[in-house]
Design goal:
The chain has 463 residues and is mainly β. It contains two helices and 28 strands. Strands 4, 5, 6, 9 and 10 form a five-stranded antiparallel β-sheet that branches. The protein has a five-stranded antiparallel β-sheet with strand order 11-12-13-14-15, with no helix packed on it.
């Protein structure tokens, strides 16, 4: 779909109940209405956006009228996290493991792309901007015409730092019937794929290195500015909160390569979905998407308590501090976590509802660790209801002054300034059903908050 056609399509158609020592009930934001939020910028990347690379989708199922495999192509999709890019108009976006599972994504590369949205915005004389998303040069941020090698970096392990066998070590992909040869470019570059990790969050530390939170381990993974792995993956120690009956020395999902005959104590692909970094770039705060087995014993709420850990970048180890995040009654998963200051964070919370199925619950909360003892529940305050955003100038061209964001997964939030957020959905290519039965597009939103965030003196967005 060309940019002019895309452009035409747009315009046609708590109470606070802090837990001491982790023993009392969580603070909830139920019943509080979020202040009014306005859509002030909108851009769209079509579902069928591709980049150069080895053939992908050989083990996945087609949907939305889009056939697979993608011969000599990689999908530019599944954005699970966002960081500020090389210029004020560009962003780095992280593609997750590919087609949704370890068993169908061994031919999908783990990449960070640079993009430049040309947001539709409102000015006194009318709408401006094409509403398209262009590829950008990874280092300079210059807009480019296609997603070439200059627009992305691919995660790799050229020095063999990881402690387990990856797809690059194999003769045949581990997916399907095991008879499809691994692409030579993956083997030669020791590139990482969606069968190795499911990277759902990433941050930059104060030295300029990347840290990834992933779901299969769950692990923290460190790489340099070119995406090359620097050290072995970091497992999550099982620091049992007060009142929990969790067992085991580590938190392990079923896909953990070291699981062996042990029983996992975390659900499949429910590892690190969100991860914040302190404004100093020295502390990471990875947040699990699922409840560790035994943690529901804390308050009897099955599957609703999620651990937030603290990791020291310089010491390269967990500090032993952790907190609990409790999902709302309607919420089932978190999508992202980013720092406002040293004690406050934004968390996206959602359920699986869409415009075509169920009742969508998609919200952003401010959470705080201030005054909360380790092992206790963070305080929550609703900030944005993504199903109730004011759009007085109809920036997305749907004919309504009310904007809704009903996609299954919404996994990226970035603070642009004290009153403006960038929010992006994960389109789960070639998945359908977010807005209609076609493959979901990727939408970039600029949201203006009614009340400013308390950004710390070191600012935000750089990490």
């Amino acid at each position: 779909m060309n940019s002019s056609r895309i452009h035409r399509s747009f315009h046609s158609v708590v109470s606070v109940a802090a837990l001491l020592a982790g023993l009392s009930a969580a603070n909830s934001a139920v019943g509080q209405e979020a202040p009014a939020t306005e859509l002030v910028g909108f851009a769209l990347m079509p579902a069928n956006t591709f980049s150069a690379g080895p053939t992908s989708g050989q083990f996945a199922t087609s949907a939305g009228g889009n056939p697979l495999p993608l011969v000599n192509k990689q999908p530019v999709q599944g954005f699970s996290a966002v960081l500020a890019g090389p210029t004020s108009k560009t962003f780095y976006v992280l593609s997750d493991n590919g087609f949704g599972a370890q068993t169908n994504s061994a031919d999908t590369l783990l990449r960070i792309y640079a993009v430049q949205p040309d947001f539709v915005t409102w000015h006194k004389r009318g709408l401006r901007g094409s509403g398209t998303v262009q590829p950008a040069h990874f280092k300079s941020g210059k807009a480019l015409s296609s997603f070439s090698a200059e627009t992305f970096i691919t995660l790799s392990d050229p020095r063999g730092k990881l402690g387990f066998e990856t797809v690059a070590d194999l003769e045949f992909y581990p997916n399907g019937d095991g008879t499809v040869p691994v692409d030579p470019s993956i083997q030669d570059g020791r590139l990482l794929t969606g069968a190795d990790f499911d990277v759902e969050s990433f941050r930059k530390d104060h030295r300029g290195n990347f840290w990834f939170g992933e779901e299969f381990g769950p692990f923290l993974v460190q790489a340099d500015a070119k995406g090359r792995i620097l050290r072995a993956e970091e497992p999550l120690p099982n620091i049992v909160p007060p009142g929990s009956t969790a067992s085991g020395s580590e938190v392990q999902a079923p896909q953990n390569p070291y699981l062996g005959t042990s029983t996992p104590n975390l659900g499949r692909s429910l590892g690190f979905e969100g991860m914040a970094v302190s404004p100093s770039g020295k502390l990471l705060y990875p947040l699990l998407e699922g409840t560790v087995v035994g943690d529901s014993a804390i308050d009897g709420t099955v599957g609703k308590n999620l651990r937030i850990a603290q990791f020291d970048v310089d010491q390269k180890q967990y500090t032993g501090k952790q907190w609990l995040y409790q999902l709302e009654t309607t919420g089932t998963n978190i999508g992202d976590m980013t720092a406002i200051n040293d004690e406050e964070f934004l968390v996206i919370e959602r359920n699986g509802g869409t415009a075509t199925s169920g009742t969508p619950f998609k919200k952003i909360f401010v959470v705080s660790t201030a005054g909360v003892a380790p092992g206790g529940f963070v305080e929550k305050t609703e900030l944005v209801d993504l199903m109730n955003v004011q759009d007085p100038h109809d920036l997305n061209g749907d004919g309504s002054s009310l904007f809704t964001f009903p996609y299954v997964t919404i996994e990226s939030v970035l603070i642009l300034d004290r009153q403006t957020l960038l929010v992006i959905n994960d389109n789960n290519y070639p998945g359908t059903g977010g807005r209609d039965t076609n493959s979901d597009n990727t939408e970039f939103l600029q949201l203006r908050l009614s009340n400013p965030l308390d950004i710390g003196p070191e600012g935000c967005g750089a990490h």
